[in-house]
Amino acid sequence: MRARTRTLSAAAAAILTLLATTAVAAPDGGGSGDLATARAATAGYHRVSVAEADGYGLPQGGPLHECIASLDPMMPGAMGYHFINGAAVGDAVLDPALPEALVYETKPNGSLRLVALEYVVFQDAWEAAHGPTVPWMFGRPMTHVPFPNRYELPAFYQVHAWIWKGNPHGIHADHNPRVSCP
Prior knowledge:
- Helix content is 27%, strand content 23%.
- It has helices spanning 2-25, 32-42, 48-53, 123-130, and strands at residues 56-57, 68-69, 78-85, 101-106, 112-122, 136-137, 140-141, 143-145, 156-161.
- Strand 6 and strand 7 form a beta hairpin.
- It has 4 helices and 9 strands.
- The longest helix has 24 residues, at 2-25.
- It is an alpha+beta fold and 182 residues long.
- Strands 1, 2, 3, 4, 5, 8 and 9 form a 7-stranded antiparallel β-sheet that branches. The protein has a two-stranded antiparallel sheet with strand order 6-7.
């Protein structure tokens, strides 16, 4: 009986290990738990000076140094200004606590307000590390943006998280009708 109990315990442990490993490897990115992680990790970035001290900034030249507005009249609104973390862009790592971009809107007094996060991974870097799969964040597949594109970037995957300003189109929509460019 004791040998049978040990065998069952070993089998149960193996099954639990397999389930735990499968849960970690699942492509869902953790969903709402990851949104809470993102919110906690970026709360200090409401102050632009803190974001800049951590390596975020407006890119020089190209369309990303400007406020990004929707080009689709059926989906009005904007994204805002993208402060990019150069150290995070270009790798194949997606971490809810380290967004590749912080998205700010201009307030009436001209100062900036953090409204969203954007997670970006270049297609070539992703496929080199993970094969021809679509990356997932926040329980959903990321959106593929092919080359050429209006941002003058190589093909990439992206997802927004409007965790600092509500978006009637949804938390992961690209543009927010409550945001406008000056």
